Amino acid sequence: MAIFLRRGFSIRNALLLRSSALYGRDLTQCISETPQRILSPPALDFVKESRRGFAKGRKSKDESPSGSTMEVLPDMGPTIKANAASHMEAAIAALSGELSKLRTGRASPGMLDHIIVETSGLKLPLNQIAVVSVMDSKTLSINPFDPNALKNIETAIIESPLGLNPKTDGERLIAAIPPLTKEHVQAICKVVNKSCEDGRQSIRRGRQKAMDTIKKLYSSYPKDNLKRLEKEVEELTRKFVKKAEDLCKAKEKEIAGG
């Protein structure tokens, strides 16, 4: 009996040892068959940075609905205002030139600037071939650069609508300014008013050009900025219109006082 028991334990132990050996071999084989995909530290860093960059890309894409980069637009305000101011200044200069052509009761060297003199086959403004100076409040002196042009200058002054009758004094001309009649004053004032209105219209054309340029920017620029720019152009227009009106009022006063 004891012998049989001993044999039974021996067989059982042998079976246990065999099964454990087989189990260990299978486990070892499974482990050995598993792919060895252990990443090195640099590779792990690359993966982390890639995932982080991908996450940032998705976040920025989500924040920008169009998925495009915002374009920084140039500030057009200074350019628009500078162009408008240049146009308006030119209008003021033209108005001042027209007013200077009108005769008043007082002598002014600029009142002869518009007279064109034909000499040596050329037509030139009087102020380019002679020096005009004021002798007193009622008398002008005209000194030509070329004494041979004296007769031509005299003819041009007489034929002008100023109503002057210069006299020769050696190598110069002396032009006395006659007093203005009431009818003449009224006629000149009408011309002043017409010139003033032309100046205002020219200034407003500069304003309209600026406004048209601003209107084209509404599709791409903030509306608040453009509204502010429109107000600045309006203020600029009022400033130049007042300047034109002040010039005309001063001219009317000069005519009436003469």
TrEMBL record:
Domain spans labelled Ribosome recycling factor: 97-255
One annotated GO molecular function: ribosomal large subunit binding
GO cellular component: mitochondrion
Region (Disordered): 51-74
UniProt-listed InterPro entries: Ribosome_recyc_fac (IPR002661), Ribosome_recyc_fac_dom (IPR023584), RRF_sf (IPR036191)
Matches recorded under SUPFAM superfamilies: Ribosome recycling factor, RRF
Presence of the UniProt keyword Hydrolase in the record: no
Family recorded in the similarity comment: Belongs to the RRF family.
Function recorded in the entry: Responsible for the release of ribosomes from messenger RNA at the termination of chloroplastic protein biosynthesis.
NCBIfam families for the chain: frr
Protein's name according to its UniProt entry: Ribosome-recycling factor, chloroplastic
